[in-house]
Design brief:
Layout (H helix, E strand, L loop, with lengths): L3 H16 L6 H8 L3 H7 L3 H21 L9 H14 L5 H4 L2 H9 L4 H29 L7 H22 L3 H17 L5 H6 L1
Helix pairs in contact: 1-2, 1-4, 4-8, 5-8, 5-10, 7-8, 8-9, 9-10
Length: 204
């Protein structure tokens, strides 16, 4: 069984993604983690303190998940970029809180009221965009070296589509809209890199 601190971190990731930050209480977090309030305050001074730590915990978990994803095995950087989108589609399963983003959820509620949380979320999102940017830059050099756009801007656009798709998934209570958004994102990326259809190209 995870230690008390880890249980609180995992509870924060789950409860905040389920209820939102404002609606989450210390009692909710303790009940989900199966710990007392005394244990909570032994590790964290406040809900804000736990949220900050949960951002780092979530980012570390996400980094491990994506580092082990199969799209990294492709030799072609564009195939890795498209494979990333395919992988995001493949993990759109389970309850909403299973696949929506803690950082996106937090920053929507705290961007003006909790600058420390906002900045931590921005660092986490930017780090993930940085991972995408490396393959985007290599794919740009290979397929469209004179393109006017930057790899960083496309990485940010990809993350924007993802975060927006999570909002609509919450609004509709369904992953279907997120899958549609990611399908459009994949088609856009193929057009951006001058590929009519990577799938068709491989099958011919």
């Amino acid at each position: 069984m995870p230690d008390t601190k880890t249980r609180l971190l995992e509870a924060a990731v789950r409860v905040i993604r389920t209820k939102g930050y404002a609606a989450t209480t210390v009692d909710d977090l303790c009940a989900t983690a199966g710990v007392s309030k005394g244990s909570f305050f032994h590790y964290f001074k406040s809900k804000d303190g736990l949220a900050l730590a949960a951002v780092g915990h979530f980012s570390t978990m996400a980094a491990g998940l994506f580092a082990a994803a199969p799209y990294h095995q492709a030799a072609d950087p564009l195939e890795r970029v498209l494979g990333y989108v395919d992988f995001r589609v493949s993990i759109l399963s389970g309850a909403l809180w299973d696949y929506t983003c803690l950082l996106g959820t937090l920053v929507q509620e705290t961007y003006d009221t909790h600058p420390d949380i906002r900045n931590a979320c921005e660092r986490g999102l930017s780090s993930h965009i940085g991972e995408l940017t490396r393959d985007l830059a290599l794919a740009r050099q290979l397929y469209c070296p004179t393109a006017e756009w930057t790899a960083e801007s496309v990485g940010t656009f990809m993350q924007s589509v993802l975060q927006g798709s999570f909002i609509f998934a919450k609004a509709t209570q369904s992953a279907a809209v997120a899958r549609d958004c990611l399908a459009h994102l994949r088609r856009y990326l193929e057009m951006l890199f001058g590929q009519s259809s990577t799938v068709e190209r491989k099958e011919t």
